[in-house]
Amino acid sequence: MATLEDIGVAAGLNILSAFIFFVAFAILRLQPFNDRVYFPKWYLKGLRTDPVHGGAFVRKFVNLDWKSYIRFLNWMPAALKMPEPELIDHAGLDSAVYLRIYLIGLKIFVPIAFLAWAVLVPVNRTSTGLEGAKLDNITSSDIDKLSISNVHSESQRFWAHIVVAYAFTFWTCYILLKEYEKVAAMRLQFLATENRRPDQFTVLVKNIPPDLDESVSELVEHFFLVNHPDNYLTHQVVYNANKLAKLVKKKKKMQNWLVYYQNKLERTSERPQIKTGFLGLSGKKVDAIDYHNTEIDRLSKEIALERDIVTNDPKSVIPAAFVSFKTRWGAAVCAQTQQTRDPTMWLTEWAPEPRDVYWSNLAIPYVSLTVRKLIVAVAFFFLTFFFMIPIAIVQSLASIDGIQKRAPWLKPLIDVPFIKSFIQGFLPGIALKLFLIFLPTILMIMSKFEGFGSISFLERRSASRYYLFNFVNIFLGNILTGTAFEQLDSFIHQPANEYPITIGTAIPLKASFFITYIMVDGWAGIAAEVLMLKPLIIYHLKNFFLVKTEKDREEAMDPGSIGFNTGEPRIQLYFLLGLVYAPVTPTVLPFIIVFFGLAYVVFRHQIINVYNQEYESGAAFWPDVHFRVILALIVSQVVMMGLLTTKRAASSTPFLIVLPILTIWFHRYCKGRFESAFVKYPLQEAMMKDTLERATEPNLNLKAYLQNAYVHPVFKASLGDDDDDDEEVMSSKWETESITVPTKRQSRKNTPLPSRISGASSSPSLPDGIRHQPEP
């Protein structure tokens, strides 16, 4: 059990770590050769150039202006200066709204902390419950005397906790309501004012039924000419180009190695040699440059052959297509309605923006998605619940007792007060952090296997699973290991009727562990985020070995993104800890407030100067954020009811039952009031934007704008710098592919509208008045 001294040591170590990170960042960001690492966003926008320093040669690499080092923290106020509207224009709505999550944390927890410390801390501190409980199997410290555990059972003081719990609930709901209203208005305003984008006019159509007489492209065109005759514009079928994408990726890797060996030849004047066997450790020794030139030529031929197969083989076309419309209104009608009697066919949804499309998953057959979801659900269940076992083992090893049992020879070292405080206050948190380092990658692989077609949805699904994992393993798991595993022997030797009392008392006592975890993950972790040590090293390695041109230098930059799949679940864990422990152990709240404040400044700086977001969803993730805060609030209310029950506060506990009911009702109200703004596009807004565009740009060639917007990027990447003619042919192929073709059907399901090529309809099943209707 960590004491106040242990917490103080951990806080000191984390503050020192954060300070070292900030100082290192302040020094590194001032050096000219690091400018592209810490300001890549401005380079990608073309608004910044490499700093030029006259004079000595060393000035090209080192900043010799000593005055700039004095102001090493001036990046913090600079990060706060950019107004939110300008931030939205600069980085997008997703980034601006993501920052608001940190602001919500401050808005919720700062007033709650004042109230908790003004009311609950004196109530808890002046009681003597832990001294009078005489629970030999539970160890407590001075920090626990500030918690609800220190209040006597059946005490009238619990009314203070109940009243404060109501205040916390109402305040949290009020902030959530205002923020949901604000973000919904921001989203609608953003959609109304943003520049023209292909996804505003485009719908993704899935599960197109097979037809023996027509290709997928012909079938799509005929279907939409019939059912959306006034709005259909063009379409692009989806190809299974996964094998081609692998070949292009392999060729790119070979080209990078070729550049590396060519640079090495220039530096050493000796032709490099490599082995062609496994990992270059075995096999025949050959000239590295000649070998990679040969491999690149071979891959180029394979790519050309595979590209020809993909574009000409009907089996490479999957039953899905991107369908574009003449107006946003037409796209909205199609995306938000059922197309046929069979609700499983011709499924339509808003197309992701082109850079948001996860092309590999579009080739997955629709019928297999349900099976994939079931497999992933089972795998995630086992991952979540069996992960608790190694976590418990690691946590036990990272404790005083665990180390003494497995390494008794370290006992003299452990007895040193500072070392003991470090182990109890710092080691468990950092051990858990290191143990979970590969979890986001595993969860993202699961989401990709599940088959979602956009990067934004992959990140949102990964974030949901990450949050559930944190809830089970970090929150519940650590509480259970703290009460049921570490103290199992004492539990066995006590009467069964005392189990609820022991668990109810021990839950708030785990606050000390969560405080250390917040400092390790929240304080030091956020400070490490701004240092960007990994991108710094990778950039300089690439710059030294691979860069030959300005384009190579731009590709060497790795600005990254906000990482919604990892960042948002971490924030939500702090919401959960703050709301659960606010009425139980208010000591946790200052540490959480420091995290939210520090993270807001750091991530604002990163979004302004570093991150280059992969996509823009218009804050479509906000309903998930709102729901998880609501869930944390309900958990805090249930925990409070359980604690008061173990404290035999039977007369006051029923008053808390109303809180979860009110919270659920509040969530349903917000869902009905605001959620539609995040899943639907109002037809009124679409019509207004279309009307304005027609008035301001009457000669807009929309078809030319949308024609190649959703061409698989691998077709462009597979063309080299000398393949301009091939690129023109490829572009021409996409254009002719979307032109209306004469129907080949002989059935009664023929297209009732005339083809733009044949000039007449071949449908004998419809009246002449419809059959010979002129083309719209």
Could you walk me through the main structural features you see in this protein, from its secondary elements to its overall organization?
This protein is mostly helical and 776 residues long. It is built from 37 helices and 6 strands. It has a 4-stranded antiparallel β-sheet with strand order 2-5-1-6. Residues 134-139, 482-489, 719-741 and 747-776 have low confidence and may be disordered.
What's a concise summary of this model?
The protein has 37 helices and six strands. The chain has 776 residues and is mainly α.
The amount of beta strand, in percent, is under 5%
Contiguous runs where pLDDT drops below 50 for at least 5 residues: 134-139, 482-489, 719-741, 747-776
Structural class, by secondary structure, is mainly alpha
Largest sheet: 4 strands, antiparallel
Helix content: 55-70%
Strand adjacency order, main sheet: 2-5-1-6
Overall geometry comes to globular
- Intertermini distance: 77 Å
Count of beta strands: 6
Count the DSSP helices: 37
Q: From the alpha-carbon coordinates, what is the Rg to the nearest angstrom?
A: 31 Å
Average pLDDT figure: 80
